[in-house]
Amino acid sequence: MVLAANPRAPLNDQHFQVVVIGGGINGVAVARQCARAGKHTLLVEQNDFASGVTSRSTRIIHGGLRYLEHGELSLVRESLHERETLLRERSHLVHPMQFLLLLNETSKRSALKVRTGLWLYQRMAGKPRGEDASEMEVKRFERALDAGHRWSFFNYEDAQCEFPERLVAEWLMEAVDAGAVVRNHMEALAVDVAHGRTRGVLLRDQITGRDARVDAGWVINCSGPWADRVCQRSAIRMAKPMLGGVRGSHIVLPRFPGSPSTALYTEAIDGRPIFILPWNDQILAGTTEVADNGDPARTVPSPEEISYLLRSLTQLFPKAKLSAQSVKHAFAGIRPLPYSPDNRPSAVTRRHILHDHADDGASHMISVIGGKLTTAASLARECARKIGLSATEPNTIAIGPGPALDPLLDDAVLEIARIGAISEESARGIMEWHGKRAADIARMALVSAELRAPICPHTSHVVAEVVEAYRKECAITLGDVLLRRVPVALGACWSESCSREAALRIGAVLGWNEQTMGANLEAFETERAAFLRPVGRAAAFEAAAD
Ligand SMILES: Cc1cc2nc3c(=O)[nH]c(=O)nc-3n(C[C@H](O)[C@H](O)[C@H](O)COP(=O)(O)OP(=O)(O)OC[C@H]3O[C@@H](n4cnc5c(N)ncnc54)[C@H](O)[C@@H]3O)c2cc1C
Predict the structure, then answer these.
(1) Does 132 share its domain with 227?
(2) Residue having the nearest C-alpha atom to atom 16 of ligand 1
(3) Residues 200 and 184 in one domain
(4) Do residues 248 and 148 both lie within one domain?
(5) 249-266: buried (b, 16+ CB within 10 Å) or exposed (e) per residue?
(6) Mutation test of ligand 1: which of 43, 62, 204, 226 has the most ligand atoms closer than 8 Å to its C-beta?
């Protein structure tokens, strides 16, 4: 691992009013909320911000149409409200997306039930009723779909955040601006509990190996699927686990002939709902539901899950002749769902729970269980209120180029391109990922040709964005940068040669010697391969698919 340019001040013996463990979307949202309420807040993350479940999700910002099926109306209402806020506030990162719901005569759900559900969903969202898809759309899809079925098509609207990693980075910087101290690559070894009350947290800096102890007024355990583990290490005894982990896997493919240009919500081979989405110039298909209480850091998609997703796709698009070789990679994450041994995974509530540990002999500690990308901000407000802070919904101001500003967007792109002497494509990419910071990055790019250079030959994102990530966004490793702050390595054509080229270009600007470059590159490739599992040698599961 390679040290950040900015040395990190020691934390030992400092007192924080709130210590948040876990820097996924929930932890970052909670830290931001507490810091904004004036609390001296520390956020620690054992790996990197957004490297957990947050980056392994389907990346949909949704009201949760399927939660209607389970009667969770209040969750749908809250999610729809939060979706609208994100669309308004983060319009450079969260985009409206048309969904096409596809059923055929074998579907488990009746067309009437679906039509009623969509009507209710759109009504709760304050939108006109969900329409049956237009004839043109139907014709286009019918050509690609399995002709042996009679298909019904329904339209509705939700939203997509292609890069929740960027949303987390923005919220993180807002937490820092509000006074929070944030540390990635800093593991909480245990919560220090004495006489029935949490007193502090023992920490280990993963970069230096140094341990520290901080005092804590409150501890908020936002470690997602690791939540029970944090309690076990802290000798907090509970009658039953808080979590019942459910693994969800996705496959990523290049676009294929007939692949959808809008999002599809349909049924997999066993009738479970799955999504097939255009994402980052590729196709993302998922997900699965497999009980998994193993180490969340080691979770990977099983050959059976990959086969199941591939077969579901193949059944839908037989003419595309997809095979295991068509899959670029697969990834998995564990949904930190509430412990519910008697329920099927799909029936477990998706509503979050804030578990107060006072009854477990550890007052002033809360564990956050569950949640969604969509509702992280409202979860954070609820959590703040639970520890006695006032947390009203902020008056929102548009911070990026919002939908209402669309006609100006091209002008804004031209302005950023002019400031940085960069191409319009680079300027647009910078605006999409960095919102209101785009001008600062463009000014940095103007300084030298090396900073204006694309990170690798296939991307329009430039090296100046990488420098911003190291300097201002707490990136420490090359993985922090290329997988999350400037996530070009999630792109369609990224390969080992791109990694090498990127390391050379970045190293030239940051003054890396050969040893530093080699160490960075090796750590990056190890992390990338552990996350995005290559599926090439898939003969085994292809056999399983037959
Ligand atoms: C397959 C799948 C698909 C999903 N799709 C969607 C979707 O489309 N839309 C949606 O809204 N939601 C979706 N979700 C849900 C959503 O992704 C999660 O609920 C959300 O990301 C959880 O965030 P989190 O911050 O609680 O957890 P995480 O993102 O996992 O963050 C927890 C963090 O805690 C850190 N940590 C753990 N232990 C320690 C320790 N001891 N010290 C310090 N740090 C520690 C971890 O490294 C991790 O980064 C999906 C989830 C899954 C699994």
Answers:
(1) no
(2) 372
(3) yes
(4) yes
(5) bbbbbeebeebbebbbbb
(6) 226
What's the domain range around 482? Answer: 447-534
Q: What would the DSSP string read from start to end of 501-524?
A: HHHHHHHHHHT--HHHHHHHHHHH
User: Which of 265, 289, 373 to mutate for ligand 1's pocket (most ligand atoms within 8 Å of CB)?
Assistant: 373
- What is residue 507's predicted lDDT score, i.e. its pLDDT? 97
The tokens of 223 are what? 């470690």
Residue of the CA atom closest to atom 27 of ligand 1? 224
Q: Is the CB of 333 under 6 A from ligand 1?
A: yes
The whole-number mean pLDDT for each consecutive block of 10 residues of the chain, a chain of 546 residues, reads: 61 96 98 98 98 98 84 90 94 93 83 84 75 65 76 90 98 97 98 97 96 98 97 92 95 93 92 95 96 94 96 92 94 92 74 94 97 96 96 58 47 93 95 93 97 96 98 97 98 95 97 96 97 71 46
Domain membership of residue 44 (yes or no) is: yes
Distance CA 398, CA 409 (A): 14
Report which ligand 1 atom has the smallest distance to the Cα of 247: 53
**Could you identify the atom of ligand 1 that is nearest to the CA of residue 296?**
30
Residue 230 Cβ inside 6 Å of ligand 1? The answer reads yes
pTM, full prediction: 0.94
The per-residue pLDDT for 144 is: 76
Is the CB–ligand 1 distance for residue 520 below 6 Å?
no
Cα-to-centroid distance, 116 and ligand 1 (Å)? 32
Could you tell me if 461 and 420 are in contact, meaning their C-beta atoms sit under 8 angstroms apart?
no
Q: From CA 352, how far away is CA 162, in angstroms rounded?
A: 23
Is there a single domain that holds both residue 170 and residue 295?
no
Whether residues 323 and 376 fall in one domain: no
Q: Are residues 222 and 282 in the same domain?
A: no
Residue 50 lies in a domain: yes
In a domain, 407, yes or no: no
Q: How many structural domains are present in the chain?
A: 3
CATH number of domain containing 356: 3.50.50.60
Residue 441 lies in a domain: no
CA 24 to centroid of ligand 1, rounded, Å: 5
Q: What is the DSSP string of 176-227?
A: HHTT-EEESSEEEEEEEEETTEEEEEEEEETTT--EEEEEEEEEEE--GGGH
Contact 491, 281 (CB under 8 A): yes
- Verify that 137 and 185 share a domain, yes or no: no
- 236 and 319 assigned to the same domain: no
Measured from the CA of 371, which atom of ligand 1 is nearest?
19
Residue 224, pLDDT score: 97
CATH number, domain containing residue 294: 3.30.9.10
Closest C-alpha residue for ligand 1 atom 48: 52
